[in-house]
Amino acid sequence: MSFKSEFIEEIYQRGFIYQSTELENLDQIMKKRKISGYIGFDITSDSLHVGSLVQLMLLHWLDYYDHRAVALVGGGTTLVGDPSGKDSSRKILQKTEIDKNINKIKKIFNRFVNLKKNSIVIDNYDWLSELNYINFLRDIGSKITLNKMLTFDSVKNRLDREQPLSFLEFNYMLLQAYDFYYLNEKYNCELQMGGSDQWGNIINGIDLIRKINKNKAFGITSPLITNNDGSKMGKTADGAVWLDEEKLSNFDFYQFWRNIDDKNVSKFLHLFTKLDLSEIKKLSKLKNEEINEAKKILAFEVTRLARGQDQAKDAMDIANNVFDSKKLDNRINNIQVNVLDIENKKFTIIDAVQKLKLIESRSEIKRLIKSNGVKVNDKNYNNADFSLRDLINENKIKISIGKKRIGLINIISS
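The structure assignment produced for this chain is given below.
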């Protein structure tokens, strides 16, 4: 299948489209003129993580082809909490905390869309905070049936599992539908995009626009990207993979992509890079050891998009030093330790792993050491007393756990 508009063709070829409403009609419209489309983002943290990267790339391509990309931050809806895909209620944040989160997250949007040109960031608190509840129920609640809401997976799955769904969360569906209606009326926004778990919310918005504004609106959802264990992409056993470099170093971000499963390389090259499709096709054919070259390209390209060109070069340079040239590089996670503390066993391998934040649990560190899971200067560590005294003549000590977690101890004299 091929499409006539550049945007629809691009995202279709790259695998962004999972569900859609009247896609061919939307394609015809986008071929003839520019439109506005939006995606909503929860503001439950002061950074987005890689689980939001599909949505950010959709906004990026919309902006790239000169349509207006609208990033809707949920200053209002985050006060309620989105039940979509959740087994339990989210922690309700205070307005001051949400505002701090929004200010930090705006910097991330600026990497993916040109906010100085046409695209914008809008906070739905601006209009949701002014709603009169009685009027809202009369004007909006009367247009959305409970029968239909109960059929959507985000609600149905929670009820099927007999897990609580508060009336507060249930109202979220009305509020998100109202967001689309409001953006359609005030900003001529015709398209809402989101993850596949947002399908029901998007359909509600389209129906509301048709009933009140008498306008045609469209929806596109993207496939849910999961980790190997089936959990949502964005969080790992070591914590969230944050897009903000203040929360996760450029090197660690780069290494996340460098170490992905082989079977995801082609998919991630399509979704998370701007490489030509012909180049991706060549890289996707690489197998065995050669696939590592494709992973390096993926890691560089995603880091470049999310963090910047210089940051990507630094991360790649560090990785080359540490893994290919076996050089110690002070730009990786490192701490300073006094030589006397090592001599007196006040600072052990367990302290080193914990302070470098490679693993937090001391019992887990001991377990890994006993199973040869910790390396010191690229050799398995197996000292029964957990001491580092054998290495006090070294200026630097490299600690590594697997291929992903690495830290450096700089030994200083008293």
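Interim note for the steering committee: Confidence is low (pLDDT under 50) at residues 85-89. Residues 167-187 form the longest helix (21 residues).
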